[in-house]
Each structure stands twice: as C-alpha cells, then as structure tokens.
Amino acid sequence: MTLTRPPATTPAPAPLVRLRSRLTAPLLYVVSFAVALGLATALVTLAGHSMGDALLALYQGSLEGGASIGQTIDETTPLLIVAIGAIVCARAGIFNIGQEGQLIIGAMAGAAIGLFVPGPGWLVGFLALLGATLAGAVWAGIPAVLHYWRGVDVVISTMLMIFVAMQVVSFAVNRDYLLQETAVKGQILSPQSNLLPEGVRLPRLGEYPDFNLGTGFFIALAITGVVAYLLRYSRWGFRLRMLGMNPVAARRAGVSAAALGGGALLLSGGAAGLAGGVMLTGSVYRIQAGFADNVGWEGLLVALVARNHPLVAIPVALFFGMLRAGGGFLASTGVPRYLVSVVTALLVLAAVFPAAYAELRKRRRPAAVEA
Amino acid sequence: MPPSTEQSRPAGTAVNGTAVPSVELSHITKRFGSVLACDDVCLSVNPGEIHGLLGQNGAGKSTLMKILTGLVTPDHGEIHMAGSRVSVNDPLAAAGLGIAMVHQHFSLVGRMKVWENVTLGERGRVDRDQARRLVKEVGERYGLVVDPDAHVENLSTGERQRVELIKCLRRDPGLLILDEPTSVLTLAESRELFSVLRRATTDEHKTVILISHKLDEILHATDRVTIMRGGAVVARRDTAGTDVRELAREMVGRELSKWTAASAVGAMDALIVGEQTAAEGEVLLRLTDVHATARDGRPLLRGLSLQVRAGEILGIAGVEGNGQAALGDLLSSLLDVDSGTVEVCGSAVNAGKPGAMHRAGVGVVPEDRHGSGCVLDMSVAENLVLADLGEVASGMFVSPRKLRERAARLIDEFDISVPSPDTPMRLLSGGNQQKVVLARELAARPKVLVVAQPTRGLDVGAIEYMTERIYRAAQDGIAVLLISTELEEILTLAHRVAVIHRGAVVGEMKRADVDLERLGMMMGGQIA
Amino acid sequence: MDSIELILASAVRLAIPLAFAALGEWIAERAGTLNISLEGMMLGGAFTAVAGAHMTGSPSAGLAFGVAAGLLVAVVHATFSHRLSVNTYVVGLTLNVLVLGLTSFLIMRTESRQVDKLTIPLLSDIPVVGPALFDQRWPAYLLIGLVPAAFWLVHRSRWGLEARAAGENPGSADVSGIDVNKRRRQALMICGVLAGFGGAYLAVAEVGTFNQNMTAGRGYMVIAAVIFGGWLLRGTLAGVLVFGAADAMRLALPALGYELNPQFLIASPYLLALIAMTFFAKSHRGPAALGQPFVRGIT
Q1: The domain C2-279 is classified under which CATH number: 1.20.1440, 1.20.120, 1.10.940, 1.10.3470?
Q2: How many CB atoms lie within 10 A of CB A322?
Q3: With an 8 Å Cβ cutoff, are A253 and B355 in contact?
Q4: What would be one Gene Ontology cellular-component term for the protein (chain C) (predicted)?
Q5: Alpha helices in chain C (DSSP H)
Q6: Which of A116, A207, C139, C204 could be C59's S-S partner, Cβ–Cβ 3.0 to 4.6 Å?
Q7: What DSSP state is assigned to residue C207?
Q8: Cβ C270–A341 below 8 Å, yes or no?
Q9: How are strands ordered across the β-sheet holding B496-501?
C-alpha cells in the first residue's frame, strides 16, 4: 500500500486532484463490490457449480413471480425491525450486539402467549406481539441494568446473553410442561412448540402461489417511518443524538444517560423481540432452538451497512432479504444455500471498505509504509 | 530508519557565529486543512543552552515540536542536527537521534508500573532490575525521587511529571523538549524543574527547548528565546537583552489593550488593575463543606466552602489539579457530593442529578469545551440550544424554524463568525466555539456563571472578548465564579480571590489586599 | 471414584482446544482487541485441518493447515480493524458469518484419522488425575510450553510491554514511539494462529471429522473465559477448565444416572462470565481501550 505522491516541487493542478478524488469514491465502491462478487464466483466455480445458475436461482427465489417477491418481503421484515432498533441504540452511542438472543426470547414469549392465552384470535395475536416486544426489552434490560449499576460493558454482556437466551428457549421446548409440542399418538416429540392457531397468526394479503405478503411488513415500515421522523425532529431524537455524540455535554444539559441510554437499549431489545414475534406470528408459526436463524446478527449488519440511517435501512434490508429468500431456491441448482451467507459477508466487507479506505487516504501519513 | 547524512547546510540560517547548532529547523511548513500551522519556520538551537519557544496557544509551537519528534510530518522543510541533515519520520527515529520530549499531556500508561513506563519505547530486552536501577539512578542524579514499583495511576501529578522526566532523561538525550511543563506544577515544583534543566545543560551539555506562553518563566529560565505568532517566527532574542514588555509585544503582535495586557501575557508587571469594588449583593451561590470523591475513590474535594454574591467575580486561584476540575464538574451536575451542600439563590440543589445545576440557574463555560462544552458533530444552531430545548420546541418536536431564529439572534448578539447556523461545530475556530458556549450559557439567563479557564487556547481577540463579556456579566448582576490557573487572569477580573489547594479553599482575600508572595505560598500549600 | 476420574479426564479433554484459543484471545484482548472472530478462526481451523489431513493423509499436517486458516482470518480482521479502523465488532461478526457460510458450503464428507495419543506410562495410571493429565493426544502437551511462553510474551517481553500499552492507553503508547495498530495486528495474528490450532485440535485430535458448525459457539465460550478470568492468564485458564468441566458433566451425568439440566450447563459459562463481571467489577478490569479503534491525532 504505497502512496505515490507527486514530488513537492511540482504541485499537481488542484482541479484535477479534486476531480480524481470525486471519481475515486464511487469507483472504490464499484471495485470492492466487483471483488466481492468475483470471490463468490470463484468459490462457486471451484466447487464445480455454475455461477450463472446460482444467480438465476437467487433471482428466481427472490424476485421472479409474486410468491418469490412475497418471500423476499417476509425475510426483509424482521431484518428491518431489528435494524431500526439497532439504529436507535447506536444513535445513543450504545452498541447492542445481542439482537439474536433478544429476538428468540421475544419469539418464545410470543409463542407462550399465542398458545396458552385464551381469547379472540386478533387480541391474542396482538398480545403475542406485545409480549414479544416486552420480553425482548427485558432481555436487553438485563445488560442495561448491569451497565448502569455495575459498569459492565454492554457489548460483552449483550453478547453473552445471546447464548443464555438460546439455552432458555432450548429448555422450554424440551419440556412438555412448558412449550414442547403435544404428542399426537405414536409420534416422537421434537424439541419444538405446537403450531400457533390460525386466528392468532398475522393476516396475509394474497394467496400462494400468487403475490402474497405478511402484514408484518407494514408494521416494520410504520416503525421505520416513525423512528426516522422522531430521530430527526423530536426532542427525544435531539437528546439521543446529543447523548451519543457527547455524553458529558449531554449530562450537563440534563440528559440522564441511564434513563435515555438505557431506554434506547430497551427499545432496541424490544424491536428485536418484536421482530421475533412478527417472524413467529407472520411466517414461522412455531418456536424451536434454531428459530433465530441469524436474523438478529444480520439485522445488526443491516444497520451497520445503512450507517445508522433508518430510511437507508429499508433498501439494505430488502437486499439482505432478497439474498435470504433466494437462498432457499439455491438448493435446486445443487449449490448449497450457505453460499448466501458467504455472499452476504463479502458484501458487508465490500460495503465498509471504501469509506474506511478513503478515511485512511485522507489521514495520509506515511506511517502506512512502515519499514 | 537510519538518518540520511547529507553534508550540505542551507546558507543563511546559521545564527550564532561559530558554534554549529545542535538542532536546526529550516523552512518548515505544515498545513492542516485550511490552517497554516507552521509557515516557513526556521529555528536554531545551540548546544548547551535552554532555548525558549514563546508564543500564545495556537502560535504553532506544539506543531513545530511534533514535527521535530516525528509525530507530525511537515509539508516542506528540513531538519539538521549537529550539521547533518536528518529525517524524523516517527517518534522512534526521533529517539534514535537523541530527541526526547516531555508532553503537555503525559505519555504515561496509568495501569503500569513506573519502571515499565520508563522503559516504554525503548528497544531490546526488558530488564526489570536494570530498569528499576535506572529509575533510581536517574532520579538521584537530577533530584527526581519516585518509587520505581509504584503504579502510575496512584501517583500525584507532580510525581507523574517526575516519571515523565526520568523517562526522557534515562535515554540520555542530547535534546530535551518540554511542552508547557509548569502548567500542572506548584511554584516550588517549577523552580525545582528549572534547576534540573539547568543542571542538564551546564553539567552535561544537553540542549533544552522550553515551550511556554508564560513570560516570566521564559525570562527566568532560558538563555535565548524564539517567539512565534500565527505559525511564523516573529523575533529571536537573547534573554538577557530583552524584557517582559518587548517579549509581550512580539508575542501578541501589537500594543496591548487593558485586558490582554494582563490576561493573555502572563507577566506580573504588565498588570493593569481596574477599580474593582466588591459588590454587596445577595449571596447567589453558596458551597458549604463540600466533600466529593472520584469514581475510583480518589478524594477530589475535601471540605470546600465558598460563596459568591450577585455582581461579584470570585476568582479561584490554584495550581492545576487541586480540585478545580472537580469544582467545575460539581457545578455542571457531573459530580455528586458525598457531604456538604450546594445552594443556589438560597435553595439547596441536588448536585449529582443530570441538569440540576442548569435548572437551578447555574451557567457553566467549562474548562474543556471539546470534552463537555459542546457537541462537535452537531450544528452551531443545535449547540446554541442543548439544554434549553423547551425554547425551540413545540410539544414533543423541535421546530427547525425556531432553532434557526434563536441561532441567528445569538450569533448576531455575540458576534460569532460562522458561515451558517447549520455549520458543524467542529469547523469553528476555538474562539468561536468558546463564544457559542458562552452565548448559550448566557442566553439561559443564569443567576450564577461559572467560567473555567475561559481563555485557554484562544487568540488575543477572543481573549479580549471573553474577558470583557465576563466582566459585563458581573455588572449585570450575575454571580461569577472564575476558575483559572492563570493568576493574571484572576487578578485582572476578580473582586475577591480564593485559593484552592488539595480540594479545599485555603485562603481568601479582597483583590486590593492581594500580596503576590503570600498568594504564591498559599497556592503551594505552604500557608493554610 | 471411577466416575470422578472419568469426568475429570473428559473435562480436561474438552478444555484443551479451548485452552489454545484462550491463550490467543487473552493476548489479543490485552493488546486491545475484543476479538469476536475467534469463533470463525476456530471453525476455519477445524475445517481446514480436516481438509488438509484428508489431502495429505497426515493428521499432523492437518494441524498446520488449521493454523494457516486461523491466521488468514486474523489477517483479514487485523487489516480491516487496525489498518482501516473499521469497528472491530462489525468485522468480527462479518467474518464469523463468512467462515460459517464458507465451511458449510465447502463441507466434504471426509474422514480424518485422529492424531496419535501420547500416553505417558506409569503417570497415566495415577488415580483420579492420571488419565486427565497424562493420557491425551500429543499436541495437547504443547500447552505445557505454550502457557508459560504466552505469559512471558505478554508480561516479560518488550513486545508484550508495548502490546499492553496499546491496549491500555494507545495515545500514550503512540507518543512513546510504539506503533499501536501494528502491535494490535500482531497480537491478533498470534491469536489467529492459536485459535486455528485450537480448532484444528478439536477436529483432527478429538473428533476426527468435520461437522457443519462444529465449534458451535466454542469461540464465544473462550471469550467468556477470558472475561471470567478477569483478563489474567491464570484466571482465563481456570475459566477454560471450569467450562470444560461443565461440558463434561453435561455429557457424563445422564450416563451416570444423575439429573442435571443440560441447558443450564451449556449456559453456565456465559452466566459465570456475566456474574464475574457484575460482582467483581473492581478486580475485573479489562484493558482500558478494549475494543476502541486507535487513530492517531484523535486524542
């Protein structure tokens, strides 16, 4: 990584430099995405498959026909909700990485309510979503309390809580007196819950195999819109930004970090919990240990790629959702669906690289050429 | 990276006849964005001398020294040492050339032991016993006593400075650079430091560059002085052949006004004392026997009591690190009391509750405006609001229109030069940032105004502006608490002076009764 | 008596791969990187080791392949977070997704022979501790040298002094002439080597084959061990042993007729780490600049 600079005696004409730097930014993005896709192609080809087939399958699975588009949107929904929560938290200067756990705990609470609370379906469904949100918030609340009470690092504690959450759910779905499915004659019990009753599920618009989508998507969009507006224009958003950018100045100005920051952490957990609830009542309908399926992690990545802008998170989440939906279709071509994870990760790296590289260039200290 | 030797020296830069300068910087230019930090600077220092580098904050002294120590790479210019050209690309290269620097902000790692810190940045095997022995040896040679096995985080600021000095001296550098070394020291400690430096130059023929903005310090301790202003060298003098007035004029660049003469320059005899009569208003701020501790259990305030009346400026004098920061934090609700009370306008305030002081009517212009006075990544308009959201909000929402209106009004009233209210705070000059902070605090119509180190790091115009504003605030009936380590600043403005030492007020006197000798002793803790 | 011997032996056996990775993570964290990609390093090491063993026919050569994979992950992580200053958690997280995807994608139904056991005669017959300590696969005995070496590296060597300074106070380290990000990159690479070896050990020494996601969160468990151990080497190793014991009990207790909730045992490392952080906050101080990127000029 040697930086070639013109000799000091002949300063480069300024307009040219400016033009070059204006061109390099988009160019860098193009190059790094090309490299990412190139790597993915090489991988697929080396494994003896055709990248063309894989791309076609990804397209078919995510965009071709109403059902596929609906599938993409279903995958997008929880990612977007998780990302919005992560964004609120990041704005307050707190890094919550435990969404995977908060999500599954939310889903578990939703399942418990949906399965065991009597009442009209729409009400129980609503309560399930509410319960999921609260459970997610509680799960994020524990790190919040530990942080503001004992100074425990939030990144570490939210991460550790993921694994505790997994085992809590695993515990619940392995106990027939808790969430494990009820035995039908002669059936071997699996560690999973019963399916939610029809009435409790989120309604779907349209019928398979035509275009159909879960109404959860509208919940996600509404949350995104509201959060974007509040962050931009409300007193709460103002104070949240102040806290995130300079906690000391914020405290001086009367912002209580524990209340506002802790609140943001709870909101972020609540969002992850709600995402779990929406997955549960909108598409999956039952809880099991593998329920979260990396949605929490990927939702967090959506927020990061969107650079903490709620509205930018919508297209990013849709893109991630497309990959996830397309992944289901890959199997038909013989390409393992795990290709999607690889591509996702490569694209995230490709997305963060250009800005970071430009920043490094700007610092342009020859230290980069050390010995 | 071995220093490239090239025997040609640019003509016309040698200053002092026959002696080859031990270090010579020629035509150094460094630009940070739009700021020209060093503009074609030439500096030549002879072996065995203490060379003063005088200039106000922002004059380019620190940048120049960072270039010499390899922390900053210049855009142009050359460095010669003992006649041969060298390239200093990083701190390690500087160390290899025998250049060592005592930084203004210490370069120590708190959770490591003294000997570990001293050996940090060396090469080769870590030899604990040898390092300990060296700490003791170097300490004895220069009279810097410190326990090699103590953890640095447990040491006082004075002791830390000793460690810092030992860290530099143990490498036996030919050139020692000190950046504002006395800002955290008592008078006695400063004298001790200068005698150490004198010993190093006369006995061991080392070369010392002393960066300072304090005239008496330069006059007292140096052989020659180079004066910088606005990134350029404006004068070179033999210390013996100059006086305070000349130095001050060169440093500031014009005849001094009433305010700057005293507060910017830092010379006792340049003082012009206004006719300050203590107002007999009601007591607006009263601290009674306040005790406070840091998170890690260190005591910060130990029974501090003071009161400030309406229309009065109370100056808190003292050596840095004696509880001034804690006092400022306390009055900004950043620190809670263990015992004692804080009363504003006669009613007690719950100090540790976020924003409580602000609500009670205490405005604060804090010591570190970057750290807590403003939010650099928010706009000027937003920074003019921060706590007073109510004024620009309708219901739950912030009204962008009201926000801009308020900003426009304050920018006009306080003469802040800024392209637009939406400009990010980060892009403003230090002086304008300070104006924003002051404007915000005064706009809240405070009963009490706390100003901590209000002019630190500002240019002359801004210093004058701040000083006048503070004076006017008191005239308008605000109780002003001025916390400063610049004695001159306090003597210029204050009606009464209180001395803070080890977290308590140890003495108090009317401005008219100030006896400098006595004040100095109190600040050093010799008189209770 | 017999069952204690059995559980102890199995605890040590399960702790060994963790111990290799823990040494690495400890070094990386002391230099200021909370290395989340440890999971990816281990998983990559496990996969590559089996693939390498399959190709070369030698399980020992497989170990070398595993080390290379761990190092590769570390190089990518170090470049992104300590050259380009990208948030280290983002990078770590992404790398974990990448490695999991990659290994799952490339998975081969191959078997690897296990490396040989090195049973030390006589000593292995000592009751209770004998089988645990003296009847392991041969690479396990590398730990005898690696543990003191790691301690020496961090606490006695020049490099360690500089790396610790980089983790505690990067600003001061920089001013003292230490290339903070270089030390952090190096620490991360050492971590990659050790974690890759740990993963490889798991695959070719313990299991003898590669399963999808076979590390199953062991990387995170190791991170928990470093936290549990209060960022001290002895504490970290104690954590690894305790977590190994929890795992051993989960496997062994049902067979021995005891009821102990397996989910609780699986969750226990994470709970213990949380408890340690909560209640021993004073002694459990991580490096002050842990997880914070260092950029010169921002003070």
Answers
A1: 1.10.3470
A2: 23
A3: yes
A4: plasma membrane
A5: 2-30, 38-56, 59-82, 88-106, 130-134, 142-155, 158-168, 170-175, 180-200, 218-228, 233-256, 262-279
A6: C204
A7: I
A8: no
A9: B362-365, B448-452, B479-483, B313-317, B496-501, B504-510
Residue of A nearest to B330 (CA): A252
Domain residue ranges in chain B: 109-160, 283-523
- pLDDT tens digits for chain B (528 residues)? 444 444 444 433 334 445 688 899 999 998 876 667 888 999 999 998 999 998 876 678 888 888 898 888 888 899 999 888 998 888 788 888 889 888 766 688 988 999 999 988 888 888 889 999 989 988 888 888 889 999 988 887 778 888 888 888 888 888 999 988 877 777 777 888 888 888 888 888 889 999 887 777 888 889 999 998 878 898 899 999 888 778 877 876 655 454 444 444 443 333 334 444 545 788 999 999 999 988 777 788 999 999 999 999 999 988 777 889 899 999 998 899 999 999 999 999 998 888 899 999 999 999 877 778 889 889 999 999 888 888 888 888 988 889 999 999 999 999 888 888 888 888 887 788 889 999 999 999 999 999 998 887 676 677 888 888 998 999 899 999 999 887 778 888 888 999 998 899 998 988 888 877 788 778 777 665
User: Is the CATH code 1.10.490 the one for domain A74-182+191-202+212-364?
Assistant: no
CA neighbor of A320 nearest in space, from A335, A298, A293 = A298
Interface contact B334-A367, CB threshold 8 A: no
Helix H or strand E segment including B509: strand B504-510
DSSP track, B16-42:
STTSPPSEEEEEEEEEETTEEEEEEEE
Q: Is A151 an interface residue toward C (CB < 8 Å)?
A: yes
B101 min Cα distance to partner chain C (Å): 9
Q: How many CB pairs under 8 A join B and C?
A: 61
Of A167, A304, A341, the CB nearest to C100: A341
Q: Is the dihedral of CA A57, A63, A68, A71 positive or negative?
A: positive
Q: Complex ipTM, two decimals?
A: 0.87
Classify domain B283-523 at the CATH superfamily level.
Answer: P-loop containing nucleotide triphosphate hydrolases (3.40.50.300)
Among C91, C102, C286, beta carbon nearest to A342: C102
Contact criterion met (CB < 8 Å) for A346 and C278: no
Question: Mapping DSSP to helix (H, G, I), strand (E, B) and coil, where does residue C246 land?
Answer: helix
Q: Are B146 and B136 in contact (CB under 8 A)?
A: no
Omega prior to A209 cis, within 30 of 0: yes
Three-class SS state of B45: strand
Task: Give pLDDT tens digits for B475-515.
Answer: 899 999 999 887 778 888 888 999 998 899 998 988 888 87
Contacts of residue B509, defined as CB under 8 A and 6 or more positions apart, other chains included, come to: B496, B497, B515, B519
Q: For tokens 């609340």, name the residue.
A: A141
Helix (H), strand (E) counts: chain A? 13, 2
pTM of the complete model: 0.85
Side-chain-side CA neighbours of A262 within 13 Å: the count stands at: 17
Task: Give the one of B108, B121, B126 whose C-beta lies nearest to C178's C-beta.
Answer: B121
Inspect the interface and report whether the beta carbons of A340 and C101 lie closer than 8 Å. Answer: yes
CB contact under 8 A, B376 and A245: yes
Rounded Cα gap, residues A109 and A136, in angstroms: 9
Residue type, B350: N
Closest CB to A156 among C80, C104, C227: C227
Provide the residue ranges of all domains of chain C, joining segments of one domain with +: 2-279
Distance separating alpha carbons of residues C3 and A48, to the nearest angstrom: 49
Q: Enumerate the domain spans of chain A.
A: 74-182+191-202+212-364
Which B residues in the span 381-400 are in contact with A, Cβ-Cβ below 8 Å? 382, 386-387, 389, 393, 396-398, 400
